[in-house]
Amino acid sequence: MSQWPTYPLDPSDPEPSGLVPGSQEPGGVPRHVEPVPPVPQGVPQGAVPEGTAASTWKEIGEAFGDAVSSFFTASSVPEPTLPVIAAAPGYDPRAPMVYSAGGGTVRVSGEWTVPPYMTVRGGMGSIVLDMQRATVVTDVVCVTVRGGMGSILIVVPDGWAADVSTVGTGLGSRKSTVSQKQLVGYPILLFTGSMSTGSMRIRYPNRWDLWRRKREEQREKRIIERAYR
Fold this sequence. Notes:
There is one protein chain. A hairpin with a 3-residue loop joins strand 1 and strand 2. The termini are far apart. This protein is α/β, with parallel strands linked by helices. It has a 5-stranded parallel sheet with strand order 3-6-9-13-11, with no helix packed on it. Strands 4-7-10-14-12 form a 5-stranded parallel sheet, with no helix packed on it. The longest helix is centred in the last third of the chain and has 21 residues, at 207-227. The protein has 2 domains: 1-79, no CATH class; 97-223, no CATH class. The chain is globular and about 70 Å long. The model is unreliable at 1-25 and 29-33 (pLDDT under 50). It has 3 helices and 14 strands.
């Protein structure tokens, strides 16, 4: 029979069943021995030697190896909680940039930034996103479509790609004349969602779009010239 006392691993009974050898005062008077703390959850049984008089599990780990010390230096130390910094809409999949027509018309054109995450809701109106002069910040743009009963038109520059294969049509329709193959140096728009009873069209600029773009550029040029007179 081992001369070392057995310490219970049950937290409800923390008192040891014996005394550590040599733990008696002269004259045979037992000396008070601090009970070993309960074994934390996750420390394997038998990883802690019996009969130790260490008062903390940290001391046990330092004395008896990595089996226990690694538990305290890694798994039992909570990670610091970092402050949540609110990002601009469209730069977090949980907070996409939302374009919602409701019962009206929404048109976005000119120089603007296409965020990585967008949600387009047609409602009972219409949405036009003209990306001819837009700037992208990522190679992949995720667009969630909620067509409703409205219409959605997205115009992309030459070289861009779009994939609408996962968009459900329901009683509506979807059409894309844009390549699904992404070219090096150009972004791709990945569409998900459904159209319900609405319609969605993705295409490259036509003559009307090019004329509108030229007119916008000329108007902006005149405004800048007046500002510097």
